[in-house]
């Protein structure tokens, strides 16, 4: 209701209309009882049953009227449900846009997409269908109890016994805390599988580059196996309770047959037969109501889990904005005694690290995987806030720089660039929306993208991802660099920007970088050590610490970690695939 706004009144109207529909739907059963009653009273002179037609039309009228009220209830509930779903998605996306990029990256786009799209869709289904059905399932038994008490309370009580047993089975075995926990585990398994599927598909270029086979599929396969195992175990555990519930819910008429033998005695009166027929007719509604309660209960647990998942995102706080906003004086970067630990991690990713980068200086971060290179770059861009110490840009703490201004100060080129399904022109313009077409085209030229533009008939207006329009990983990276050219931020962070480029594209990317990096402060993360030999300073990171720093030649003379990495790199460059026993 928090998301519904004024549309919550549609929900209330839906509940009222659904309740009216439930009560009206019972009237035709009373008319059917009156028809049977008149037939029994006039037999064998059936031509004296003059009210049958009027009773029949009365039943049809009220059946149609019940349908009209129920359809009206569904129209109101759907109108509210669609609005609530749209508002939820809008509010979540607005909130996600304010969250640190580090959080979004750590959660994975597959998981966040599932929560935003599928969890909100669960609430739409619940509001649109299950809320009216829940009202009907509550209103119908009230009307039934009243009618059962009027005709023959003994038969009414007997018909309720299987319903009560089915109800107890439903709440003990198929609902309650255990079922809620099972539903949560089911959603977790589904969420993990969805996230792994997205990440696996996105990782296909890496798989092809390094010739991976079944090992690349391992995590995705494990997620599928876990989902399969959980689903099969859960289904088997629910088999007996569901069979028992269905049997008792649909076996109410059997209790009435037993009641007929017990209560009829030696003399079977017309009134008893009449009441028995009424209960046999009316119990079909009771069965349908029980099934609606069961499905509504399951849907409620699903929607509660969906709301909890949405709240898990909405409860994450954006990075705090300082009240003392300052503007950096230059493009220098200072890290002073910085420590940082990822959530749920047992060790620090960065531990008491200090680094001073002058404006216009080009530095490189190298070291073994897990050393903290990408973490340092992410902290400079304030994807996260440091736990201890401070990071300053232009002698101003990044926490005191307005978020928009900080983004204007830093350009970040990732190793896996993203292009959206829009024209090349608009893809590049994203980095500076107010830029003119001429400025975008110039940025594309500076990023060595002219050959990409020339190969498409529509040039810069070509829509990426449309039929037959695709670009390679290296071409995608050059287009990403064009964004950085257009943005023209004074600080440039390159995170493995040439990792998956083929040789031809790497040459063009390096040319683009040389022009882009001019007069800028550059922080480069690279495993290809040949790309950083001209850096003003190379920092070697290991286990969150700077273990070595200096120029390329200086580090080679120290015979330390960098010298060993350089030796290993040169050995890998010389590797060749040879025939037979040739070396």
From TrEMBL:
Protein name per the record: ABC transporter ATP-binding protein
Bilayer topology annotation: Multi-pass membrane protein
Domain of life of the organism encoding this protein: Bacteria
Domain ABC transporter: from-to ranges: 333-568
ABC transmembrane type-1 domain location: 13-269
Any single GO CC term annotated in Swiss-Prot or TrEMBL for this entry: plasma membrane
GO MF term set: ABC-type transporter activity; ATP binding; ATP hydrolysis activity; ATPase-coupled lipid transmembrane transporter activity
SUPFAM superfamilies: ABC transporter transmembrane region, P-loop containing nucleoside triphosphate hydrolases
Organism: Faecalibacillus faecis
């Amino acid at each position: 209701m928090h998301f519904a706004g004024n549309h919550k009144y549609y929900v209330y109207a839906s509940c009222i209309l659904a309740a009216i529909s439930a009560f009206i739907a019972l009237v035709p059963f009373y008319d059917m009882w009156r028809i049977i009653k008149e037939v029994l009273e006039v037999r064998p002179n059936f031509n004296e049953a003059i009210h049958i037609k009027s009773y029949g039309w009365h039943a049809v009228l009220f059946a149609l009227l019940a349908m009209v009220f129920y359809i009206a209830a569904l129209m109101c509930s759907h109108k509210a449900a669609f609005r609530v779903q749209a508002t939820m998605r809008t509010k979540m996306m607005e909130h996600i846009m304010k969250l640190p990029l580090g959080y979004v990256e750590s959660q994975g786009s597959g998981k966040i997409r599932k929560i935003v799209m599928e969890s909100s869709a669960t609430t739409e289904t619940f509001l649109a269908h299950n809320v009216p059905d829940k009202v009907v399932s509550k209103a119908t038994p009230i009307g039934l109890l009243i009618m059962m008490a009027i005709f023959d309370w003994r038969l009414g009580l007997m018909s309720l016994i299987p319903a009560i047993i089915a109800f107890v089975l439903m709440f003990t075995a198929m609902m309650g805390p255990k079922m809620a926990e099972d539903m949560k585990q089911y959603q977790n398994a589904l969420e993990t599988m969805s996230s792994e599927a997205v990440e696996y598909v996105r990782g296909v270029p890496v798989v092809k580059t390094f010739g991976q086979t079944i090992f690349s599929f391992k995590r995705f396969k494990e997620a599928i196996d876990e989902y399969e195992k959980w689903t099969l175990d859960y289904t088997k555990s629910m088999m007996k309770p569901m069979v028992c519930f269905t049997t008792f819910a649909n076996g109410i008429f059997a209790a009435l047959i037993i009641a007929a033998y017990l209560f009829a005695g030696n003399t079977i009166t017309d009134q008893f037969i009449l009441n028995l027929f009424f209960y046999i007719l009316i119990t079909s509604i009771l069965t349908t109501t029980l099934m609606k309660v069961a499905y509504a209960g399951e849907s409620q647990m699903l929607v509660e889990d969906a709301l909890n998942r949405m709240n898990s995102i909405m409860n994450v706080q954006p990075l705090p904005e300082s009240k003392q906003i300052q503007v950096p004086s230059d493009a220098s970067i200072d890290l002073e005694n910085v420590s940082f630990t990822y959530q749920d991690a047992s060790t620090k990713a960065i531990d008491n690290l200090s680094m001073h980068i002058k404006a216009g200086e080009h530095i490189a971060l190298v070291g073994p995987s897990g050393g903290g290179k990408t973490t340092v770059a992410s902290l400079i861009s304030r994807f996260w806030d440091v736990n201890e110490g401070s990071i300053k840009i232009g002698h101003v703490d990044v926490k005191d720089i307005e978020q928009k201004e900080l983004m204007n100060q830093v350009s970040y080129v990732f190793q896996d660039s993203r292009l959206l399904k829009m024209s090349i022109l608009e893809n590049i313009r994203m980095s500076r929306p107010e830029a003119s077409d001429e400025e975008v085209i110039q940025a594309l030229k500076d990023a060595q993208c002219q050959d990409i533009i020339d190969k498409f008939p529509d040039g810069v207006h070509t829509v990426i991802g449309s039929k037959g329009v695709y670009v390679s990983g290296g071409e995608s990276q050059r287009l990403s660099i064009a964004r950085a050219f257009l943005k023209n931020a004074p600080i440039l962070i390159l995170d493995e920007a040439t990792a998956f480029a083929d040789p031809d594209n790497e040459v063009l990317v390096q040319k683009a970088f040389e022009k882009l990096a001019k007069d800028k402060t550059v922080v480069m993360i690279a495993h290809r050590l040949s790309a950083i030999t001209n850096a003003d300073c190379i920092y070697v990171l290991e286990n969150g610490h700077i273990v070595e720093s200096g120029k390329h030649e200086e580090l080679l003379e120290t015979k330390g970690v960098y010298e060993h990495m350089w030796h290993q790199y040169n050995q890998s460059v010389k590797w060749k695939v040879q025939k037979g026993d040739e070396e």
